[in-house]
Amino acid sequence: MKRTRKIAVIGSSGGGTATLGHTDARALLHSIDEELRLLDATIWHAYYVSLDNGKGLDGANECVDNATVYTVQNDIHEEATDQEETRFHCRAFYRGVLKDVNKFCRLDNTLSQSILAGEIDGLICISCHVGIFSSVLLAAASKEIRVTGSGGTSLSQVANLYHIRLIGNAGGSVATTTFTRAVSYTSAFAAYWKLAYEPWKRCRQSGSSCTSVLNSCLPMFWGVCLLKQCLLFLHERFFENSSQCGSFIEASILVLEQMALPFSCCVTMATSHASGPAPVSSLNMAALIASTSCSRSILSGLLAGRLVSFATERLLYTLIFWNIPATMANLLISGGVGALIALLMLPVSPVLGIITASIRWTLAVSVGFPNLQVRIGAGCALGCFCCYGSKVGWYHSVILPLILIEMELGDASVLGAVDELTLVLVSAGICAANVLYSTLHSRQDHLSTADIDLCRRGFFLNIACGDFVEACYPLMENRLAVNVSGYLASGLSTAWLVASSSQTPKSLAYLPLPIAIGVSETNWVQMAVAACIAFGISFFGTLIDNWSWHSHKRD
Fold this sequence. Notes:
alpha/beta; Rossmann fold; 6-stranded mixed beta sheet; 6 strands; 61% helix; 22 helices; single chain
């Protein structure tokens, strides 16, 4: 069985606060240990001082500010099983004012004795105070233990005062993250011990598909659409003649239209494709920069996010293995990758924007034919298609992505209005009819108590939230007349909306019914009538079916 190399960690959260993750000592030590295990090594002993409230030690008052000492004292033996070797014990060992914490670390000689006894194979110094940890550093110097770490001031003092040889890319800690530091330390020991360190080969899950990422951005689309509607309302009613306030609102609307949604898609795609414990903060910063070239195009935002996630991890490992300091590595993967992807997306974004604009134009034209009969037929077909597609599993793969493409500029959508009519209100009508029937007939007949509870909950969520349209599906599948009334309601309500609207009808589901109608702007009356048609046909169709079943059963 391979011998597990033992690493000691000493240090603190640092003088400044220019690192990401400096306040979470447990996460940092756990991340370091996780990377070391790829080398059959582990943190055997640690003293890590973390100042409370995320403050930097440079401006700390020893007699006032509180700090905590986190320790790792591994009790794993050489003959331990693989399952036991995966255990990691980090705990807050001592807490008090900084002066007492420093005194505790200075007087405790457990680690220095372990080093002198030959139990420690390497030392990681993280912004350590060379005076407080002098006994440890003296022991490391006498045993010629190799040292790596971060924190420019402390490392330079370690090398100068104790004549300790630093290995790897030991350097500053500005702009570093928990993950980049862990990889940097581990890479240093791997190079010194001449071991293979290939963290990119760790077990990783495949990233989400484009449609999944796009669908997960629905809250952002939803919020941008509502905010844009509110800003337009305020501008038209109160600030149209106010040059200063009006210009400010117009600028806000322009930002929403051009940048908000591409940025959201870019960041979400980048983080969803992050493999392993890649630094999410670095991905977010790189994605933000890359999204600046994705104006008015959510597809380019998705593509830029995918490129960011692809490039960030690979560049990170390359830089660290070239012994580039962690600070510079993080600057390059956050700022450099983002800038490069932004440049690459400059010629691509307009093309992808044309594609999504063409999709919006096609949907608008499909319900905007000059001929009334054609518009009615197209609206009826579109309503029935959405009703059927939702039942067979096309909603999340086809309908919702098309809705979000329509909402690319922060506007409501044609399919959003159809969604509200054919799914939400049809479900509400069916559920309401069943609830009313059960109320008028205490005897349950063909509806169980569970069915009624489902319908009651479904009706409430349909009207109040525009959600849980699936509540009616079991009832539609079991009763032919209910199924027919659902399709009839879907087709006729959409046909009415398309035929009666003077402009392209648009709305949005996942809203309370009154707001979904209000979002339709100039077509709100037509949308309200269409909502009554969708609800009424499905309601009375289901109610008649229940009465006919009751009459047939009685006969």
